[in-house]
Amino acid sequence: MRLTPLAASLPATVPFVGPEAQERALRRPFVARIGANESVFGPSPKAIAAMAAAASEVWMYADPELHDLKAALAAHHGVRPQNITVGEGIDGILGNLVRLLVGPGTPVVTSAGAYPTFNYHVAGFGGVLQTVPYRRDQEDPEALLLATRKAGAPLVYLANPDNPMGTWHSGRAISEMIGRLPGGAVLCLDEAYADFAPDDAIPPLDPAEPRVIRMRTFSKAHGMAGARIGYAIGHPELIAAFDRVRNHFGMNRMSVAGAIAALGDHAWLGHVREEVAAAKARIAEIAAANGLRTLLSATNFVAVDCGGDGRFATAVLDGLVRRGVFVRKPGVAPLDRCIRVSAGRPPDLDAFAAALPEALADANKSHS
Amino acid sequence: MRLTPLAASLPATVPFVGPEAQERALRRPFVARIGANESVFGPSPKAIAAMAAAASEVWMYADPELHDLKAALAAHHGVRPQNITVGEGIDGILGNLVRLLVGPGTPVVTSAGAYPTFNYHVAGFGGVLQTVPYRRDQEDPEALLLATRKAGAPLVYLANPDNPMGTWHSGRAISEMIGRLPGGAVLCLDEAYADFAPDDAIPPLDPAEPRVIRMRTFSKAHGMAGARIGYAIGHPELIAAFDRVRNHFGMNRMSVAGAIAALGDHAWLGHVREEVAAAKARIAEIAAANGLRTLLSATNFVAVDCGGDGRFATAVLDGLVRRGVFVRKPGVAPLDRCIRVSAGRPPDLDAFAAALPEALADANKSHS
């Protein structure tokens, strides 16, 4: 085989190791799966019923135009179907967005410690990543703007609310950032956690704005991570470009049916939001009981500051994983002093509460 | 937005229009959906049960390593998991294969009239397609070899059994072709229809052979097109390269569960094969009753020679579609004298039998 020079240059590393691989290494299942910001509260019962009903119809490909789902999403958001593209989770859409805008040598801007899968795609298409640091555990729009302008980058990434820290900016601050983007630059605004954020954190949708594309997903609040449905809202011209590169018959028929049902179940979304709010409060209590600070979060997870450096937090994380509690953590200093704990059900958080003091003790021992 | 020069150069056309778009244009559903080589006989009941049961667990991402599915596939085929990569249908895997081997200007060889989605991916990564004609309604290994050698192409595509004609080569002929490939060239051997083919049409699997990668799918005989699960079997080095570019969390949790269940249900596969054989015989009878010849097929569809040129066959197809019978046809002469009819249940083929004489009469009228 003769890989392209670009493919041959790519590392064999992957953005995230799955919890299943860790379970195989541990030779037992996790007691609590609160590491991937999945919604342990599950999908809407209506979505489950729709997916189960669609299982017997799965001999048919899904409609490659996703007409019904796009119509439902357009009505939901008050935009037109031409403003929406659907893909295999935000991860899949990010890959195609990068493919459309980034070639070998193209500069792309993001924050050091932000979503690794975005960086994976940028590297995968030969782009050159330029990073700016977080500022007080928040992504820094001013620094991102400056770097975008300086590099002449066609693409800049920001998540609001942020992952992995859970912090957020006001919608007004984001709108202002969009308004100040240099000509031709596009903001990839990752709003995977928008459903958990306060209303004033989300800028109004402007379907005529060419400088931003907004990523949404059924993986988080809708509890359908394994169904792989994300979508992006943007200017019709950029949205139409996805049709030049996407896998037109790539969507799952069961998932599409589930997404339409989930979108209509407002009560379930309200229920999940309440459960998440309660779980986040409990995570903060557990942390406080162990003398640890937590960051305010507009997502379904909480960054817990372990009070030391990255190595110390990694030792805490390892101690939790050894005790059957799956959590993850940021990879870049100074964010990496934290571990990231997803909202869990009471038994999940009981397991976290039981394991945390022991994990801290282990970490303190190995650092003394 | 600033599309890359490559993205800006791509056409807005798509490989296939879905039947749903046609139904929206017709303002009524098709009576018979026998155009996309889906398995109207459905998935295994065990697969349906597994997918329905997994619907409530879909809050979890699927294992990004697909450990259990790859283990099951490896056992089934007598290879190692390192020989297998899994993706969102063969379409998704073809995209990643092309991405690994093809850059701007790279020559790629296929047959004129073969699978358009492969060509879509080659264009999408800037490759330059070189085509050779079919020979007696079969892909022509000798001509493909010659073109590959002449062009210095790193990638050549052949489907066995073939789509859209349904014809096939012996496994011995394919093995011989692989053995004669020029150094560094890889044969993308699309075996989507292998489950319908006679045993001697499928060359033995050789997991140490670096010159071929074999595409398989749950979309055809397993009746799970809308579940989007394909896989490729090849040399561990080429298989490992997919991990550099694939969407690691791209697979659907319900589909993975369904695929494992389907793989174990040999009885259902036998049942589907019998139904398909009966349906193909009936399609040939219907064609013969209308004075039309059919091609022998090792797939789940039959190419029906409409007895005229491409325009005449298109008129026949349009007449069928107008009467609620969804079929497709090859796009390149001389293959395009045929329409392609997928195996259907008796009521599907009743609808085809009723519509065909009228469609032929219409086509004859418009051509006289």
Number of beta-strand segments of chain A: 12
Strand order of the largest sheet of chain A: 2-8-7-6-5-3-4
Oligomer: homodimer
The rounded Rg of chain A comes to 20 Å
- The first-level CATH class name of the largest domain in chain A: Alpha Beta
Most extensive interface, residues per chain?
Answer: A-B, 84 and 84 residues
CATH superfamily of the largest domain in chain A: Type I PLP-dependent aspartate aminotransferase-like (Major domain)
Q: What form of chain A results from the Cα inertia axes?
A: globular
The biggest beta sheet of chain A is recorded as: 7 strands, mixed
Chain-averaged pLDDT of chain A: 97
Order of H and E elements of chain A? HHEHHEHEHEHEHEEEHHHEEHEEH
At the fold tier of CATH, the topology name of the largest domain in chain A is Aspartate Aminotransferase, domain 2
The tally of structural domains of chain A comes to 2
| Strand residue percentage of chain A | 5-15%
GO molecular function, one term (chains A, B): pyridoxal phosphate binding
Family (chains A, B): Belongs to the class-II pyridoxal-phosphate-dependent aminotransferase family. Histidinol-phosphate aminotransferase subfamily.
Keywords (chains A, B): Aminotransferase, Pyridoxal phosphate, Transferase
EC number (chains A, B): 2.6.1.9
